[in-house]
Amino acid sequence: MKMIFDWLDDRSGYRNLLHEVLYEKVPGGARWRYVWGSCLTFAFFTQVVTGTLLWMFYSPSAQTAWESVYFLQYQVWGGWFLRGVHHYMAQAMIVLLVLHLMQVVIDGAYRAPRELNFWFGALMMGVTLALSLTGYLLPWDQKGYWATAVATNLMAEVPLIGPAIQQVVVGGVEYGHHTLTRFFALHAGVLPAMLVGLVVVHIYLFRKHGIHVKEPRPKKDSYFWPDQILKDAIACLAVLLAVVALTVYFHGAPLGPPADPANEFPARPEWYFLFLFQLLKYVPAFWGAVIIPVFLALWIFLQPFIGSTRPGHQLNIGFWWTLIAGSVALTLLAFSEDNANLRHSAALEEADWQAERVLSIVQEEGIPPAGAVTLLRKDHENRGRNLFAAHCASCHRYNGHDGRGYPVDDAQSAPELAGFASVEWISKLLNHEHYISEEYFGGTKFKNGTMARKVLAKYTAEETALLPRIATLLSDMAQLPYQTPLSEDEREELLALFYNDDLVFQDGLACIDCHDIDSEDEGHAPDLTGYGSDEWTIAFLENPEDERFYGDENDRMPCYGRDGKLTNEEIKILSDWIRSRPSE
Amino acid sequence: MSDFNEEESSGRRKFIRVTTIGISAACGIFPLAAGIPALLDPVKKNSGESAKVPWSKVAPFASLPEDGSPAKFEVVQETVVDAWTTYKDIPVGAVYLTRKEDEVIAFNLKCPHLGCAIDFRKQTNDYFCPCHNSSFALDGSVTTENSPSPRPMDTMETKVEKGQVWIRFQQFRPNIEEKIPLS
Ligand code: FES
C-alpha cells in the first residue's frame, strides 16, 4: 500500500499539495464564523451531483418536461427524495450566501487586499440566483411557468437590446420547447460551468490572502486541519440534516399542475425573490430590471474603496443591513398581502385541486403523447367547474363560491347549487325560511311567488315536518349518482303524500295540483317528472322558458341551448357536474 | 503529570481527526447516495413478476400465403407504456407469419444472435440474417454449422379467432441458447 502511495507521490507530488491544503494557517484559531464558505462549497457540490442524477430523468420539452418530473416524483424509486434534496439545497444555498456575505462584510474581509475576491463573490451570487431562476421553470408546472414569464418580461426592460435578450433567452416570442431547452442548457451547463470557474478563482484568491482575522486574535493560531475542518464538517452536516428534514417533511419538492397558458395562475417567484416581486408593485419595471441592479453592481464595486476608512466601513455594514431589513420587510408584506387576498388563496387551492386531479387521471389512463395538460383540458370534472364559474356563478353559487373556490363579487341572485336535487338540498328549498333566503330564491322574483307566499308560508309546524319526505321523493327522481334509490313501496307511499291522498295537508291542496309527476296534465308550475335527473337537468339548461319549466314566468335564467350559448356537449358536462357529489 | 496531559491531548486529537474524517466522508457521499435508489430503479422494476403479455391482433388469416411461405407483418400493440408516456396502437415490432394448416406460426423478426433484422430469401426459401450470416430453415431451426445464432428463431404464442391472427408479442434475451423473454 505504502509503495503505491509513494509511487503516486513521486509522480504527482500530491503529498505536498495535500499538506498545503490542509495545513493552511488559521490565525487566531478555528472559529465557527469561518464555516459559511465551506458550507456553500458543499451545497454547490451537492447540487452538481444531485443535478447530474436528475439529468438522467429529465426531458426538456413542452410535452415531456412536466411528465418526466411527474414520473420521477411519483413512479421512480426514491425519485421524490433526490428531487427534494436538490430543491431544498438550492434554498439553503441562498440562506448560506447571505450568511457568508454578511460575515465578510461585518469582519471587513472585503477590503484591501481582498477586493477582487469580494467582486468574484458578488458575481457568484449573481450566477447562483440565475441558477435558481432557471431551475424554477424546468418542471414546467403552473407556478414555474407563470413566474418565469414575469421574470423574462423584465429582461425586455433593458434599453435597446432588451427585447432581443428576452427572445434569445426564451428561444422565441412565445414560451415553448426552446424555452425549456435553453433554460435547461443554462441551468445544467452554462451557469454551473461558470460557477465552477468562479469557485476555483475565489478559493485561490482566498488562499492567497489567507483568512481575514479580526484583531485582537481570540486564540492561538492553528491550522485548517483538523480544527477548522471539523467545524466546517459539522456545519455542513447541519445543513445536510436540515435539507433532509425539509425533504422528508414535505415529501420532496412540490409539483403543480402542468403549465397551461390558458389556465390562469397567480405568478409568484420563489420566496427569496419575493421582495423584488413586491418592490415592482411600487416602482416601474424599468427600475426593477435595470436601475436597481446597476446601482447594486456599482455599489458593490465601490464598497472595498468606501470601506477603507472606518466610517466608510460602518456605512457599508449599514447598507447591507438596510438592504436585508428592507428585503425582509418587503417579503413579509408580499406574504401578508397574499394571505389577505381571498382570490389568491382560492387560486392556490384551485391549483392544488388541479394537481391532484391530474394525478388521479394519470393513474387511471396514463399520459398521452400530447402531454398531461391535455388530460386536464378535456377532463369533464375540470371543465364542469370551469363552465359553472364562467356561465352560472354570476347568479348562482356553489358552496358559496364560483364552483372552483373563488369568491364572487356580484351579489347572489339565484339558488346555491352544491348538492343540487339531493334530499338535503330539496329539504332546505322546501323550508320557507330558506326558500326566501338569498341561498335559494331570495334574489329572484319567486321570493314573492305563489309557492313562497301561499304555500310554504302557510304550512303549520306539523305540515312543515312532512316536507323532507316530499324532498325524498323528488330527490329519488334525480337518480343522483351518489344517492341510493328508493324501493318501490317507499316510492308509492311518498307519491301518496305528493297527491295528498290521506289529506294530511289540511288545506286539501296537493303538490300535484300545480306540479306534475308522471301525468299528462300541464300544471302551471314546473313539471317535476324526473326532476333533477340527467334528462330533466339538460332540458332545463337548454330552455328554462319551455312550458314544461318556468314558461313565461322565467326570471333571468338564460336559455343556454335554445340561444346557442353553450354546445350540447357543454350542457351535458355542466349537468353531470352539478349533479355530482358536492365537493368543498 | 505532563505525560498524562500529552496522552489526553493526543487521544483528543485522534478523536477530532476521526470525527472530522467521518463527518466529511458522510457529507461527501450523501449527494450520490441520495440518488442511488432512483438510479437503480430500472433494475428493480425488472425483477418483479412481469405482467401477462397481451394479445395483439396482427392480420387476417386469409392474408397469409396458402403454400406456407412466410409473410412479414407489423405488430401493433393496443397500449404501450414508455416511462411516463402511454401510447395507443403503435407498432412494437415485426413478425414472420406462416400457415400450418389452421394454425399460425410466428417468428420474431429479430435475430436471436444480436438482434439484427432477419430477411426471408425467396430464391433459397430460407431465412437469413445479413449481420453475421446466420441462416434458418422455414421452421426456424438453425441451418449452418457454427452459426453465430445460438438458438432457432424465436417463436411466439398465436391464435386464430374469427378469421384474425392474434399474437402474444415478446422480445427475448439475445445470444444465449435458452429462450428467455425480456420484460
Ligand atoms: S445478429 Fe443475426 S447473425 Fe448476428
Reconstruct the topology from this structure.
The complex is a heterodimer of chains A (about 575) and B (about 180).
Chain A: H1 2-12, H2 14-22, E1 25-26, H3 35-55, H4 65-74, H5 79-107, H6 115-137, H7 142-155, H8 162-170, H9 177-209, E2 222-223, H10 224-249, H11 274-279, H12 285-306, H13 310-340, H14 342-365, H15 373-378, H16 380-392, H17 423-429, H18 432-435, H19 450-455, H20 461-478, H21 488-498, H22 534-542, H23 568-578
Antiparallel strand pairs in A: 1-2
Chain B: H1 2-39, H2 41-47, E1 55-60, E2 71-82, E3 85-100, E4 103-108, E5 119-121, E6 126-129, E7 134-136, E8 155-156, E9 158-161, E10 164-168, E11 171-172, E12 181-182
Antiparallel strand pairs in B: 1-10, 2-3, 3-4, 4-8, 5-6, 6-7, 9-10, 11-12
The structure holds FE2/S2 (inorganic) cluster (FES).
Instruction: Give the strand line-up of the largest sheet of chain B.
Output: 2-3-4-8
N-to-C span of chain A: 69 Å
Ligand species = FE2/S2 (inorganic) cluster
Count every beta strand of chain B, where a strand is a DSSP E run of 2 or more residues: 12
Ranges of chain B with pLDDT <50 over ≥5 residues?
A: none
Give the chain pair forming the largest contact, with residue counts: A-B, 39 and 30 residues
Q: What string, H for helix and E for strand, traces the elements of chain B in order?
A: HHEEEEEEEEEEEE
SS-based class of chain A: mainly alpha
Q: What is the count of helical runs of chain A?
A: 23
Percent in helix of chain B? 10-25%
User: Termini distance of chain B?
Assistant: 73 Å
> Order of strands across the widest beta sheet of chain A?
1-2
Strand content of chain B: 35-45%
Proportion of residues in extended strands of chain A: under 5%
Rg of chain A over CA atoms, rounded to whole Å, is 34 Å
Order of helices and strands of chain A: HHEHHHHHHHEHHHHHHHHHHHHHH
Give the oligomer, counting copies of the same chain as homo and different chains as hetero.
heterodimer
Report the total helices of chain B: 2
Rg of chain B (C-alpha, Å): 29 Å
